[in-house]
Predict the structure.
Amino acid sequence: MARPKAQIPGETVTQIIDCAEDLICHRGYNGFSYRDIAEHVGIRTASIHYHFPTKGDLAAQVAKRYGERFNVILQSIADRDPNPVTRLEAYAGLFRTALAEHDRMCLCGMLGAESATLPEPVRLEVESFFQLNRDWLETVIADGEREGKLSLRAPAPTQAHLLLAAMEGGMMLARNKNDTALFDMIAHAAIEPLAA
Amino acid sequence: MARPKAQIPGETVTQIIDCAEDLICHRGYNGFSYRDIAEHVGIRTASIHYHFPTKGDLAAQVAKRYGERFNVILQSIADRDPNPVTRLEAYAGLFRTALAEHDRMCLCGMLGAESATLPEPVRLEVESFFQLNRDWLETVIADGEREGKLSLRAPAPTQAHLLLAAMEGGMMLARNKNDTALFDMIAHAAIEPLAA
DNA sequence: GTCTATAAGATGATAGAC
DNA sequence: GTCTATCATCTTATAGAC
């Protein structure tokens, strides 16, 4: 009667992706192995290969889910908050929370640095994530200017690029120094000048 | 009479450090091995261990030299150029050149993302590099404001942090997209608003 | 200072039983 | 879908000859 390995359908896959996401955020693509995941999830590495034949397949799916979830959150921020400044602050808050509560880099900030060693499908997911961020930021910033609530010294696309760079760079610096306040300072300095 | 392995004193060590620096800028600490260096320099991995017992020793020395050289260049910029705006543009130009001409990340931007997996001595060298940058930027920015050539919306230390974050984040984004112009846009957007 | 030889363990991945 | 077993290769590192 014992069926100790019976699982809720898709449960193992979810655990694997969850674990891989956490590992990548902390250690990067080249800093984790199937073994790390196997030990944490309580399965064998062969089982991971059943679900994700190669490490690139796994990382690509992790990055894909990360982007999809991020997209949903971004939409919900835009939906519930009409103020461009607090929208941008909520945006920065997403990165801040990951950093402060889980000591995590942005998954794509980590993978982005490793771009040169990434399987192409992974690199492309990372690129899509950044594009998603830029598009959202550009819309928020352009809308804010049109409403007279932001005053820009450079075009909205440029400001969007700068803000994203500040987030990713700020996370990296804060993490190296183990100082979340450093990220807050950078995020605030990046957003505040846009306010009219 | 053949002494094929005779070397100019310190020449091999220099070649190893040069090669390791290049590899780290491209692939990161966890993305290269002693084997990569051995093949490129034309020696055996055991010879590298003679000069650098552990990978951490090697990376720490690479990061140390990188910081020292960077410091020299920063001083020379400050010495020959009194204008704060063009000083900052020259600063950004350092990163831009590495990116455009060698497709290189900043060595410490790469290592910084990997902070969690780095041997402590390496992590500390990286932290020193960032401190060096912040100090230089802070001085340039504070001097510029005192002379009335810059007009700051936030204190000089905060602006210095933001500028550094924009450089590191901008390099990562530009590299992931293989688009140097993206870095230029970000660098300009970070510097221009400081001009009085 | 460089080499050969070697170790001990990690790594991504596959074949085939259950 | 998970397991055992196995693989070839890579990785960091050391011992000792030259």
